[in-house]
Write a structure and sequence with these properties.
heterodimer; A: alpha+beta; SH3 type barrels; five-stranded antiparallel beta sheet; B: mainly alpha; LSM complex subunit LSm2 (chain A); RNA-binding (chain A); nucleus (chain A); RNA binding (chain A); mRNA processing (chain A)
């Protein structure tokens, strides 16, 4: 649940999602669920010439399993807290 | 239950097949004249000519009972039928009237028929679904003049839909049948110009494949009748409570309203004779004729219909019929009025677009009841919600708290409910904008979801139990298995989302074995080092007020004698890198647990944390705690450790820290002697240490320590370390400065209030003497060589944009506090030793002064640097009553 928990904090932030088919989409993260499916709003494709079919798309639902990367702004992440959360997760698994 | 109504006259099955009124007449005759022999040719439908299929007995339910075998059915939404609908010319209306199948049998009639078998039953109405399903010709003709009919707005359509779904049909008073009812159907059953508003039954429901809930309460015409208050109720509760309670026999009554036009028409026409309402009947009779002939069954004479209708009519409450008539008439009037206004092309276009939209919305709407949706929402929620947000959703929870500045806001469940509302688009609260109600509903959903989530592990346990029992050979019933599996596809257990499958499986290391091997190594080390000479032993003994156990002294001495600056060797002497790292993790875990306890208001027990720190651990040559500080994460956890430790423990920790300062990695890398070329990462590390750990020490010393404790710490430092080495490092020098300046402050402070006891003062003097002796003749060495300075400035300049200069303030601070605590002879020695540096600084400042005088962008920078140099230098000089100004040193006035 750590990633889910983490991505929830990114809601309403602008992220760039790279899919496994190399499409890169920039948009505002609208929601995320436990499968890390993403909903993006106001999307724009970084390579519009290659994927013209996405020019007219405004919002999109992305199945979590098709995501390769999510690029974040550095200040969206509280790394110390993330470290703690990771440790807690590891602890709870050991129990 | 049948999709289109059911047939209570099942006993006459074979006859039913004939369909049409003729058959009905036959039956009537049969009933009236007692039994006549059946004529095979009348009843045989020619099924034998087709290949037999399975489940034929359901065919009537699905397709109706008077359909010619071999027809093509359209069970989709009927795009084919809908498309022509839009373009159908108004003139087609006459033909359109043919579409409505008139003989639908109502539930009422059916029910009544069941109760009173003697009553004649309109068998022709039996199970006759919409014509357009299988008769494309009829379907095309059906939508008449749609563009001219009244067009509903999107909202209206939505509302109607909702009503349809939410209202258990029986709720609807029949008389409320709203005028615009039929008009809403997208296909444009809107009343054609002729104005026969009485719709053939079943019309109002979008004819093709409109997903109707099986209970039949979705018969759409009733929908609009719904009184508006109905909405405010949470639909799901409503539907759930109402439906089961409804006695079965009541059910059939509701559809009767729209479906019994056969019965109504005669009545309707009588009072409203002057209205065109009469006309449709003719039309319809005619059309039914043609329709029947189209489908290959002989059509009944129009007269027959009227006759048939009469008996059915008797069964219906008179009142109801009359009530129905009224709105219909009104509607007719309205419709006609509207139809008279011509539409401009733009309007037409807009209407078309709107229709396309409505079409889209209607396509799959009603597929799920609100209850279904709630059920699924609950299931989705149950995957997300958790009883224990701080453990399972730690990052999010704490992040939000931090974002809001430490204020705990809405509850977790409230947040989830809100978020889900946002997704579902219900946040506006529907028609009446009752957003608060919508939120309440969602919150209750979340509540339920939590209970579902709570049950989940229980069920899992049951399953496991059942499996175990099976393995043991006991006959365990599989009933324990999740019965809901499969209903919504495979319901992933909590395992999937909460603990995803791992790419990497790391077997749990055998910690004990590792520890044992480390211990063996360590003892070996200890024995080897015990023999090392103990040069400073006498000095230690002379300071009797320091109570270090003999054993630890031996250990420390020896490790000091070894004194290697190699980090890895230091590390190995404290248990090895792996061991230290695992210790740090243990410490983190303890701290996290303590913090969790603190949050939940439980008592905190620091004992485990204290043990994890290994402060008093005599097993290792170098205390593991010191090695922990070699890692950034070890440094960063310190403030949080200090939050929990008792004062005694803090003091003990700092004693250990100062005792083993020479082993501290940070000292080693910050000393120009051992690390003449620091890397960027190392400089960063030094910075982190300074901002994190030094800060704790300063705050501890200034807030809660007394004079004796400070002396003790300083003594630990002096006794166990090479002060001259430590003073070559920035961090070391800073640490010493902190201690002696704090001591000096306390001394000055107590001079006024409570005097220090003379033994305290004498001890302090003794310690200071010792410190000074250690530093004497090496004081100049606190200044790093030029190459080192150049290196450091170069490195740090790389990271920062502005040109940086080595800040020597810490050195002058040290000298200042050293001089402050010392007597006059000490100060003289200090000045003697650093004279070169003083004059070097003055010279540099002089150069900068000339540079600052000149023009150019560097002037401001030079001026700043010159001032800084004077400022730093004066820190020291002021202590002795001197001041440096404009390249000269004068007495402070």
């Amino acid at each position: 649940m750590l990633f889910f928990s983490f991505f929830k904090t990114l809601v309403d932030q602008e992220v760039v999602v790279q899919l496994k088919n190399d499409i890169e989409l920039k948009g505002t993260l609208q929601s995320v669920d436990q499968f890390l499916n993403l909903k993006l709003d106001n999307i724009s494709c970084t390579d519009q010439e290659k994927y013209p079919h996405l020019v007219s798309v405004r919002n999109i639902f992305i199945r979590g399993s098709t995501v390769r990367y999510v690029y974040l702004n550095k200040n969206m992440v509280d790394t110390n807290l993330l470290q703690d959360a990771t440790r807690r997760e590891a602890m709870s698994e050991r129990k | 239950m049948s999709f289109f109504g059911f047939d209570a006259s099942g006993a006459q099955g074979p006859q039913r097949a004939r369909g049409g009124r003729q058959q009905h007449q036959q039956r009537q005759q049969q009933q009236q004249h007692s039994q006549q022999p059946l004529d095979f040719d009348d009843t045989y439908k020619g099924y034998g000519e087709y290949a037999p299929e399975e489940e034929d007995f359901l065919n009537d339910e699905t397709f109706g009972n008077d359909v010619e075998v071999g027809n093509n059915f359209d069970f989709g939404h009927g795009a084919a039928a809908a498309a022509p609908a839009a373009s159908a010319a108004p003139g087609a209306s006459a033909g359109a009237s043919a579409a409505p199948p008139q003989q639908h049998r109502s539930y009422v009639a059916a029910a009544a028929g069941g109760v009173h078998p003697a009553a004649p039953v309109d068998s022709a109405a039996d199970l006759k679904p919409m014509e357009s399903l299988w008769n494309p010709a009829a379907a095309q003709a059906a939508p008449p003049a749609q563009p001219q009919g009244r067009v509903l707005s999107l909202e209206e359509v939505e509302r109607q839909q909702r009503q349809m779904q939410q209202m258990p049909p029986q709720q609807m008073p029949p008389q409320q049948m709203p005028p615009q009812g039929y008009a809403m159907v997208p296909q444009g059953y809107a009343i054609p110009p002729q104005g026969y508003a009485i719709p053939p039954q079943g019309y109002a429901m979008p004819p093709q494949g409109y997903a109707m809930p099986p209970q039949g309460y979705a018969m759409p015409p009733q929908g609009y009748a719904m009184p508006p208050q109905g909405y405010a109720m949470p639909p799901q509760g409503y539907a759930m409570q109402q439906m089961p309670q409804q006695p079965m026999q009541q059910m059939p009554q509701q559809p009767a309203v729209p479906q019994a036009p056969v019965a109504q028409q005669p009545v309707a026409q009588a009072p409203v004779a002057q209205q065109p309402a009469a006309q449709p009947q003719l039309d319809r009779s005619a059309s039914s004729l043609s329709q029947n002939s189209q489908s290959g069954t002989p059509g009944p004479a129009p007269m027959g219909e009227a006759e048939l209708a009469a008996p059915v009519h008797q069964q219906m409450p008179q009142q109801m019929q009359q009530q129905q008539q009224m709105p219909q008439q009104m509607q007719q009037g309205r419709q006609r009025q509207r139809n008279r206004e011509p539409l401009t092309p733009e309007e037409q276009k807009r209407l078309d677009i709107r229709h396309a939209k409505v079409e889209k919305i209607l396509k799959h709407s009603g597929l799920m009841t609100p209850r279904d949706k709630d059920f699924i929402t609950r299931y989705q929620l149950s995957q997300i919600v958790t009883e224990d947000p701080y453990n399972e959703d730690f990052y999010f929870q704490v992040y939000k708290i931090i974002q809001r500045g430490g204020v705990v806001g809405e509850s977790n469940k409230g947040l989830i409910a809100r978020a889900y509302l946002e997704h579902s688009g219900h946040r506006l609260g529907g028609r009446y904008k009752r957003a608060d109600i919508a939120l309440q509903r969602m919150q209750s959903q979340v509540e339920k979801a939590v209970t579902v989530a709570k049950e989940r592990p229980l069920r899992k346990q049951e399953k496991e139990l059942a499996q175990q029992q099976e393995q043991e050979g006991e006959a365990a019933s599989g009933a324990a298995a999740d019965s809901r599996d499969g209903v919504l596809g495979r319901i992933s257990s909590s395992l999937n989302s909460k603990a995803p499958r791992r790419q990497l499986q790391i077997p749990a290391a055998n910690k004990d074995a590792l520890l044992n091997s480390l211990l063996v190594n360590d003892e070996h080390h200890a024995r080897a080092s015990a023999a090392a000479p103990d040069a400073l032993m006498e000095v230690t003994e002379s300071l009797g007020n320091v109570d270090l156990s003999q054993k630890s002294r031996v250990r420390r001495r020896s490790s000091y004698a070894f004194s290697s600056v190699d980090q890895s060797s230091v590390m190995s002497r404290s248990g090895g890198r792996k061991f230290v790292l695992s210790l740090i993790e243990t410490v983190y875990e303890e701290v996290l647990e303590l913090e969790a306890n603190l949050r939940s208001g439980k008592a905190t027990d620091v004992q485990k944390l204290w043990e994890a720190l290994h402060i008093n651990d005599e097993l290792y040559e170098v205390c593991p705690f010191i090695s922990m500080l070699s890692f950034d994460k070890g440094i960063k956890i310190m403030p949080r450790i200090f939050n929990f430790l008792e004062k005694e423990q803090k003091l003990q920790l700092l004693q250990t820290f100062f005792s083993e300062l020479s082993h501290l990695n940070i000292i080693i890398i910050s000393s120009y002697k051992t690390n003449p070329q620091p890397s960027e990462a190392q400089l960063k590390q030094i910075d982190v240490f300074q901002t994190v750990f030094l800060k704790i020490i300063v705050s501890f010393l200034s807030s809660s320590s007394n004079f004796i404790e400070i002396m003790g710490l300083l003594l630990h430092l002096i006794k166990n370390n090479s002060v001259s080495f430590i003073s070559t490092s920035k961090i070391g020098l800073n640490l010493i400065t902190v201690l002696i300046s704090r001591a000096a402050l306390i001394r000055q402070d107590t001079n006024r209030s409570n005097m220090l006891s003379s033994p305290e003062i004498s001890t302090w003097n003794e310690i200071y003497d010792k410190l000074f002796t250690a530093l004497e003749s090496k004081i100049a060495a606190v200044f790093p060589p030029r190459e080192y300075i150049a290196k450091v400035t170069e490195k740090s300049a790389g990271s920062a944009a502005a040109p940086q200069h080595y800040d020597q303030a810490y050195i002058w601070q040290f000298l200042a506090s050293l001089a402050l605590s010392g007597k006059l002879n000490h100060q003289r020695i200090i000045i003697d030793e650093v004279r070169d540096q003083i004059f070097g600084t003055l010279a540099e400042a002089g150069q900068l002064a000339t540079a600052a005088a000149g023009p150019g962008p560097d002037a401001a920078d030079s001026r700043y640097r010159r001032d800084k140099l004077y400022q730093d230098l004066n820190l020291f000089l002021n202590v002795m009553g001197l001041v440096a100004r404009d390249g000269e040193i004068s007495e402070l006035k």
